[in-house]
């Protein structure tokens, strides 16, 4: 497996971090290829908990190179906090590499993200408000500021000045609507609304302050800045194993997800080529990670969403609260129509099914196998048309459940027959083998399948 891509197969939070962590044991290089600190995962190592937002969790292994690819958008302040936090806990950061071409999330991106969401009101997307969308928008507009710009004061100042002007205007326009927004914003949003569109000039938007601050970030990040695409080529050409780690997931893909309720990058496997700088032929395997059920944070269609006791069970037993924002996740049965779509669009070669233990005690288990449209038509394929998807209701196959606790299972034969039958059904339906099953939060709580 010299070139292995790991992607989320649902709406995110599938447990990619744990799967990447396990597969990274056999890899030499681990590269993040898109997204930013909208992602987050927790790794438990020897009883110690580590939270990651930008740095590949492979950094916990000694001697492995971990890279933040050019497709990532990174907030340098958050990245430095993450580096400092890990260093304080004794983690060696000398193998961290950051692409000189990655784009920076600037303070105005964060303000615009929040202000934009508040302006949308009931139509808001439920973004993580980390500035992801505005940063990728600036990249496409060619107003972006890249990691390499941090190393040249003149370039940095000029680029910030050019990028800042339209932002100040946009934020000024939004501040005209400030009173209305404040009135409309819920209790929890009032403070954010005030911060995003405050009446006095925001010190974070001062050209001089921002330039100085970012020069100091550049100074600190400089030892890590590198040509990360070349690192990938060198590793792959020497026959070493590289893992390309996606953030978010297939159904949040900007082009192929449930637009507009998506993130602003492409989390599907094909995007590893662009976000890391490799060619399509460098990808040998694609692993998709899916929960044994489904969750979604933020707004947007979710055909199998539950509002009953089973959904509550998934939320509580699965601790379905966001690592990044702490938001409660929406929960539902596994959607095999959507999963088969994810298998195809990612050219998936294997699946890792996580959190199977959460399904214990809520049998019979349901799996969505087709949708019915508002007009009554049966749909076997994931609809590309937004209105059809919004009106689709799932039709389920019922499978026998299991009540036994499976957290101690380590071999396929340890699993209850019903759990194995559930996994077989999923694999058969979507057409790829399940190679790894998560049976609990611990790193060792997994079952490898042949
Ligand atoms: P953004 O990526 O912050 O712009 O948010 C866009 C949408 O993607 C929102 O619905 C978010 O809740 C969702 N999203 C972004 N990152 C993640 C993630 O890591 N896990 C799950 N959902 C995410």
Short overview:
The protein has 450 residues and is an alpha/beta fold. It has helices spanning 16-24, 76-88, 107-120, 132-141, 153-176, 178-184, 187-196, 207-221, 228-237, 271-276, 309-317, 336-345, 386-391, 417-430, and strands at residues 3-8, 29-32, 41-45, 48-52, 65-68, 73-74, 96-99, 103-104, 225-226, 242-245, 285-291, 293-296, 330-335, 350-354, 365-372, 378-379, 393-399, 434-438, 446-448.
Structure in words:
The mean pLDDT is 93. The chain has helices at 16-24, 76-88, 107-120, 132-141, 153-176, 178-184, 187-196, 207-221, 228-237, 271-276, 309-317, 336-345, 386-391, 417-430, and strands at 3-8, 29-32, 41-45, 48-52, 65-68, 73-74, 96-99, 103-104, 225-226, 242-245, 285-291, 293-296, 330-335, 350-354, 365-372, 378-379, 393-399, 434-438, 446-448. The strands form four sheets. A ten-stranded mixed sheet has the order 9-7-5-2-10-1-11-14-18-19, with helices on both faces. With 450 residues, it is of the alpha/beta class. Residues 12-13, 38-39, 125-128, 130, 132-133, 247-248, 252, 261, 263-264, 297-298 line the site of inosinic acid.
